Q: What sequence folds into this?
């Protein structure tokens, strides 16, 4: 979606169609007339910045894409964007590092919108011990690293099940954001999907062989609540927890 050509109306129409909404559905939600919305989408009417943001809100358009819509409409971006190391982000950055450290002795890492590694705690880096150094040269894509034959791929016991779970998640994220890079990553992961037998597990675990043992993890995803800055909306903390007693004992040093 971020690379779609055309005027702001065409881009808004693309987001409406991505959300599977009719013009009537969106007009009703945004409290505008269907005729006016139609004029905006065809370019017969130039929307104000407030109208672009109103429609974007009801279409759940990511902040980065809202800025692009505003630029396409001839307006300045409404949402700030910083590097994580910039002074305005100091407290957010400190919060991320505090969460990573507090999660020890269990692995946790921070990824951006394209699943590139932003930060990780020592337990996460311990799981990467022995991986080819060139695969750890920034930028490190966590998805590719986990499946790479010189990465974690050969160590993942349930690789087919894990790949299928990743492909499904990436597809959902692409559907939500329209980000072409996520679509390409989803297709890349799905290329080698194999049939996965049914499972009664409540959560798909990551089963990782380390030496003579197999560590089994379940994971949670944490994001910032009510962010109004582009970078913060795109960061996620992936925290891994023991999925069985044996893994918990090993990680806790018992």
A:
């Amino acid at each position: 979606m971020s690379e779609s050509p055309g005027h702001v109306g065409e881009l808004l129409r693309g987001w409406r169609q991505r959300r599977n909404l009719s013009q009537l559905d969106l007009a009703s939600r945004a409290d505008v007339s269907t005729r006016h919305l139609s004029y905006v989408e065809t370019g017969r009417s130039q929307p104000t910045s407030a109208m672009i943001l109103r429609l974007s809100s009801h279409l759940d358009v990511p902040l980065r894409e809202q800025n692009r819509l505003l630029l396409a409409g001839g307006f300045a971006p409404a949402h700030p964007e910083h590097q994580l190391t910039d002074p305005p982000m100091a407290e957010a950055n400190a919060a991320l590092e505090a969460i990573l450290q507090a999660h020890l002795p269990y692995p946790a890492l921070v990824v951006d919108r394209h699943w590139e590694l932003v930060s990780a705690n020592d337990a996460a880096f311990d799981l990467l011990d022995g991986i080819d150094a060139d695969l750890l040269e920034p930028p490190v894509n966590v998805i590719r690293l986990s499946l790479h034959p010189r990465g974690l791929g050969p160590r993942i016991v349930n690789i087919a099940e894990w790949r299928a779970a990743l492909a499904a998640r990436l597809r959902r994220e692409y559907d939500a954001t329209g980000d072409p890079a996520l679509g390409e990553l989803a297709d890349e992961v799905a290329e080698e999907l194999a049939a996965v037998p049914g499972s009664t597990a409540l959560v798909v675990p990551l089963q990782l062989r380390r030496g003579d043992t197999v560590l089994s993890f379940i994971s949670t995803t944490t994001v910032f609540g009510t962010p109004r800055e582009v970078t913060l909306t795109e960061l996620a903390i992936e925290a891994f927890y023991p999925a069985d007693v044996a893994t918990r004992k090993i990680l806790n040093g018992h």
User: Anything to note?
Assistant: The chain has two domains: 8-72, 87-251.
